[in-house]
Specification:
The protein is α/β, with parallel strands linked by helices and 179 residues long.
Length: 179
C-alpha cells in the first residue's frame, strides 16, 4: 500500500485481537495498553482480505507531523481519511464511518435534535461529532484542531478526570450554566 515507503507496521482490531503485519515493540506496547492479544498476518493479502473499520499505524512521535501530512495527501479524493489519535498513532477510516455520523444516528433513534446534544472530545477522530453536536467541549490536553471546534475547553485534562470535573462544575452544581 501507499504507506509501505514509511516502513511502518499496520494493525487493525479483529475481534479480541490486534491483527498486524509483524510483532514488534509497538505492537507489544499497544497490546499492553489495550489488553488485546497479537496475531500476525501470513501476508499483506491476508491482512487486507476483509473490510475493516480502520487501519492503524504506530509512528515515532518526532515524525508524527511529517507522516500525518504524507498520509493526508494519500487520502485526497479517496473515501477514507487519516487522523492522529495519540502522539504516536495514525488511524485511517472510511470518511462516512465517523463519530459525527454515529451521533446523528443515535439522535435519530432517540428522537433528539443534534443541537440539543453536548459532545466531548480530545482529538481529531472526535471532530465530526463535535461539528454535529449543539455544544462541543474539548479536553484541555486535546489536539489544536479539536480545540478549534470547541465551544468550551475543560480546565482539567482527560487523564485527571477532566470530564467528571466539567460535568460536576458546569452542569450539576447549582451555579452551573445549565441551572
Amino acid at each position: 500500500g501507499f504507506m509501505a515507503p514509511l516502513q511502518l507496521n499496520p494493525f487493525m482490531y479483529k475481534g479480541n485481537v490486534m491483527f498486524c503485519k509483524e510483532k514488534d515493540d509497538w505492537m507489544a506496547f499497544s497490546s499492553k495498553r489495550n489488553g488485546k492479544g497479537i496475531v500476525t498476518a501470513n501476508s499483506m493479502e491476508e491482512f487486507y482480505d476483509e473490510p475493516n473499520a480502520k487501519v492503524m499505524f504506530r509512528v515515532p512521535e518526532d515524525k508524527m507531523n511529517e507522516y500525518l501530512e504524507y498520509s493526508l495527501k494519500q487520502c485526497e479524493g479517496k473515501t477514507y481519511t487519516a487522523f492522529r489519535t495519540q502522539p504516536t498513532l495514525i488511524e485511517f477510516e472510511d470518511r462516512r464511518a465517523n463519530k459525527g455520523f454515529g451521533l446523528l444516528k443515535v439522535c435519530e433513534l432517540l428522537d433528539i435534535k443534534p443541537e440539543n446534544v453536548m459532545a466531548f472530545g480530545d482529538t481529531s477522530n472526535d471532530n465530526e461529532m463535535l461539528k454535529e453536536a449543539g455544544y462541543a467541549v474539548c479536553m484541555c490536553n486535546g489536539t489544536d484542531d479539536t480545540k478549534a471546534l470547541a465551544d468550551e475547553i475543560t480546565e482539567i485534562d482527560h487523564n485527571h478526570d477532566g470530564f467528571a470535573d466539567y460535568v460536576n462544575k458546569r452542569i450539576l452544581q447549582p451555579n452551573g450554566w445549565m441551572q
